[in-house]
Amino acid sequence: VRSVTPPTSVSVRSALPADAAALAEFAARSFRETYAPPHGPCDPEDVAAYVAAHFGPAVQGAELADPRTRVLLAECEGAIAGYAFVRLDSRPAAVANHVPDPGADPLLVAGATAELARLYVDRRWHGSGLAAVLYDAARAEAAADGAGALWCAVYQRNPRALAFYRKHGARTIASATFRMGREVQDDWLLAVPVGPASR
Ligand SMILES: CC(C)(COP(=O)(O)OP(=O)(O)OC[C@H]1O[C@@H](n2cnc3c(N)ncnc32)[C@H](O)[C@@H]1OP(=O)(O)O)[C@@H](O)C(=O)NCCC(=O)NCCS
Fold it and tell me: Is 127 touching ligand 1 by the criterion CB < 6 Å?
């Protein structure tokens, strides 16, 4: 049994271009910790290849400069404790490997949708409630942009994340595949209503 004290001084804000280097460092570390051994189920070489291609000050700098993305940073004791990355106006129907077509799901068919592309919390704060604060903030960003639902793709071998999203109202709408290095992973696509219709 592991007990985690909720961070008392956590704050959530929108990331700025100046946060790119710190965000890249946190994103790379938390990705590695999630998917590579000892905690994750994936081949460390596949994870390393993905990290090298997707995380670095220039990549996160470009993401932060993109007007269609929102990055929310949770900070605690002066350090990044977690982040959520939202792609506004993003529809899973654009991706051919999603079965059944999630664009036909009643949750996504009406109106705009946004994607929660990443939600990562420092292991130290798992179970603390911090992830829920970030998920709420991500839903609020999506709703503020006029989305009716927020969707995300989750590795099927990530039971903790799946339990987290389902506990917070998301439901499974399709399966999908995702390539990490040489591995083709099976994901679930989940979606949750946001905005006035969800209340
Ligand atoms: C996913 C994440 C944001 C969730 O935050 P969290 O603080 O760990 O979530 P919570 O503890 O509130 O909820 C997780 C739930 O899963 C349960 N759980 C933990 N391990 C589990 C397992 N192996 N199988 C099933 N459920 C599990 C927990 O008991 C908890 O449920 P409970 O509150 O009913 O007890 C966080 O774990 C994280 O950052 N993980 C690494 C990054 C990641 O996987 N991101 C998602 C990518 S899509």
Answer: yes
